[in-house]
Specification:
The protein has four domains: about 160 residues, no CATH class; about 230 residues, no CATH class; about 100 residues; about 100 residues. The chain is about 65% helix and about 10% strand. The chain is α+β, with helices and mostly antiparallel strands. Strands 2, 3, 4, 5, 6 and 7 form a six-stranded antiparallel β-sheet that branches. The protein has a four-stranded antiparallel β-sheet with strand order 1-10-9-8. The longest helix is centred in the middle third of the chain and has 33 residues. Helix 2 packs antiparallel against helix 5 and helix 6 packs antiparallel against helix 11.
Length: about 650
């Protein structure tokens, strides 16, 4: 009965979304505050309906109600409770319901919090959000309902369980963060469409867009990092980013949102780049929808993908084409009529931000090409090809290196007309630190790793540049210490957030370049007592024994690591077998050595003819790998810090309504 109640609530949410669209559109046409309030109430009702349906789905998973088709296909009575709950969004149907929960939740938040918006613009925004809710809820209700029941005679006694690779704490929380970032771009999209219909984009509009974009960007940063960390320690391949098409599907919206955050600053401060900011606002959610299509259509084969269902993939493609097509068609019609912003010199903060946007847009285009080209090639010729890391190393990496080089200079340039010589005087020490780090690495550590040394120099440049920016704001060494402290504590949170974000990027670049340049790996087939060497460490397989897990059977190895004859750590990697799904996975062991990782994987057992059994053991030395994941966390923290700034939360005074 609870599943039927959830289905009814989901259908009711669809009705509320339709009402939200109609009432809010009518409120804009008739300029009626009563209809606008009714539309906002419908947005809250739609969110409540989806929340009830989602709670009913979780209840079905927790109670192992195998009469619900989605539960029977993705759960098992022996699964730990955490993964029973996470199973609610571990399938195509459940993940779409989570998408709708986030979408209607953002719509309700926008309707409730958008008090500073002009009545007409807010009504249009709520209407567009209602239109998005309508199409995605209609898809979920009619084509992807996670609460559908099986026929009475087909209800199984036991479920088939969730993919074992997805039974992991990091992946249990990864989708909610990722979707909160993905779907958060819908509010930015709705604000862009509303502004295009109104025909007015100004500094106030940019001020309203920035908090929503910043919140979505911060959550998406955390979500992508969780996904990368899960892949790093769960898949057992020793790396942290494989340029998997599904990984790229989440990375492209992040790149566009990063460009939007910088472009909106120019629109807010100088009234320039209004059309470009609108284009990015439309593009951010379009790439989010593209990711939803790629993951769920079956066109990609990946452990991250949710379904192989071309029919439902076609429906998602229609939704993508309809939504994005209407938005960009409106942009093509309205954008040429938008007012142009102020002029600025080639050397100015505006120019630095424009160059920043050009590089980010070009980087997004390279990732998009590398992701879609194999699909287009296979559709046209039937030939299956793959685009791997070498392509991205040659196209994406140089663009990001150029972006990193100009990044510290941007915040130190003045608006409208900057002083390049003055910026050089402020950054000379940062440049000296970066150059010294690069040269010392090249000369003392490894002259053959020139690219790695250059990457270290860029990472040091970003970190030192963030420090130089903070010193410039507080005027340390130029004013008394008491005044410097007063300036430091009085800095707005937005300034702290920007500094943290740039610092986090530098930490990530530093970790990635050291890990890629100096990682070591080794693989040997070892009996008990066998040994291998990696990265200066001596690893001995001391034993392998059986382990009974809550819903799996495993072989657990004991690997003792020493360095120069001294014990360092003991790792216990496992090879697990899940009887419910008949699948085998590897659980790696990671010894943390400061910021570096000693990474161990136990492979399959092999019977040696006339001798003891042996196991394939792989080991990796990943120097400074912790920084790879710490950097994005600092970036996300910087975004949330900026979001807590009063100027972000309170916005600006209500602007005058434009005459009809």
């Amino acid at each position: 009965m609870i599943a039927e109640f959830g289905s009814f609530a989901l259908t009711l949410a669809l009705a509320f979304a339709i009402a939200q669209l109609g009432l809010s559109a009518a409120a804009r046409i008739r300029r009626s505050t009563v209809l606008a309030a009714a539309g906002e109430g419908a947005a809250l009702g739609s969110f409540a309906g989806v929340a009830i349906a989602f709670a009913c789905l979780i209840h079905a998973f927790v109670t192992s109600d195998f009469s619900v088709a989605n539960v029977a296909a993705n759960s098992h009575t022996e699964k730990p409770m955490l993964y029973k709950v996470a199973g609610a969004w571990g399938s195509h149907e459940g993940s779409m319901l989570l998408w709708c929960l986030m979408l209607t939740g953002y719509g309700a938040a926008a309707a409730t919090l958008g008090r500073g918006l002009p009545n007409g613009l807010k009504a249009l925004m709520v209407a567009v959000q209602g239109a998005l809710g309508t199409v995605f809820l209609a898809y979920t209700v009619f084509a992807s309902n996670p609460l559908n029941r099986l026929p009475i005679g087909q209800v199984p006694v036991e479920g088939r369980s969730l993919n074992p690779l997805l039974q992991d704490p990091a992946l249990a929380i990864h989708p909610p963060f990722l979707y909160a970032g993905y779907v958060g771009m819908s509010v930015v999209f709705s604000l862009a469409v509303a502004a295009l219909i109104e025909g007015r984009v100004d500094a106030a509009w940019a001020r309203w867009v920035r908090p929503w974009a910043l919140a979505a960007w911060s959550l998406l940063t955390v979500g992508i990092t969780l996904g990368a960390f899960w892949a790093y320690y769960e898949l057992g391949w020793g790396g942290w980013w494989f340029w998997d098409p599904v990984e790229n599907a989440s990375f492209m919206p992040w790149l566009i949102a990063t460009a939007l955050l910088h472009s909106a600053i120019v629109t807010e401060k100088r009234g320039a780049l209004a059309g470009w900011s609108l284009f990015l606002a439309l593009g951010a959610f379009t790439f989010s929808m593209l990711g939803a299509f790629l993951v769920r259509s079956g066109v990609l084969t990946s452990v991250h993908a949710f379904a192989v269902d071309p029919k439902r993939g076609v429906l998602l493609l229609i939704i993508l084409a309809l939504t994005a097509g209407c938005g960009f068609a409106l942009f093509a019609w309205r954008a040429p009529r938008l007012a142009q912003g102020g002029l600025f010199a080639p050397v100015s903060r505006e120019s630095a931000l424009v160059l920043n946007n050009i590089l980010l847009a070009a980087a997004t285009a390279t990732v998009l090409l590398g992701t879609l080209y194999p699909l287009i090639r296979e559709a046209m010729t039937g030939e299956a090809i793959s685009v791997g890391p070498p392509y991205f190393d040659l196209t994406f990496a140089p663009l990001m290196a150029a972006l990193a080089i100009i990044l510290p200079a941007g915040p130190l340039l003045a608006w409208k007309r900057g002083d390049l010589q003055g910026v050089g005087q402020r950054l000379w020490l940062a440049a000296l630190v970066a150059l010294g780090c690069g040269l010392l690495t090249f000369a003392l550590v490894s002259p053959r790793k020139a690219l790695g040394a250059a990457g270290i120099a860029i990472g040091a440049w970003l970190i030192a540049g963030a420090a130089a920016e903070l010193i410039e704001r507080t005027r340390v060494f130029r004013v008394p210490a008491r005044d410097s402290w007063r300036r430091l504590t009085g800095l707005p949170r937005g300034a702290w957030g920007m500094t943290l974000a740039h610092l986090g990027l530098g930490v990530f670049v530093l970790g990635a370049c050291v890990e890629l340049g100096w990682k070591a790996e080794s693989a040997e087939t070892l009996p008990v007592g066998g040994a291998l060497n990696v990265g200066g460490y001596h690893l001995v397989l001391e034993g392998v024994g059986p382990v009974d897990g809550p819903n799996y059977d495993a072989e657990r190895g004991v690997i003792r690591a020493t360095r120069d004859g001294k014990p360092v750590c003991t790792g216990e990697p496992e090879r697990r077998f899940y009887p419910a799904g008949g699948q085998t996975t590897s659980e790696v062991a990671i010894c943390y050595r400061g910021a570096s990782h000693l990474y161990m994987v136990l492979g399959e057992r092999r019977e040696a003819p006339g001798g003891p059994p042996v196991w394939l053991v792989r080991a990796y030395w990943n120097p400074w790998a912790t920084l790879i994941f710490l950097g994005p966390v600092i970036m996300g923290l910087g975004g949330l810090t900026s979001l807590s700034d009063r100027r972000m939360r309170l916005g600006v005074a209500r602007r005058r309504e434009q005459p009809a």
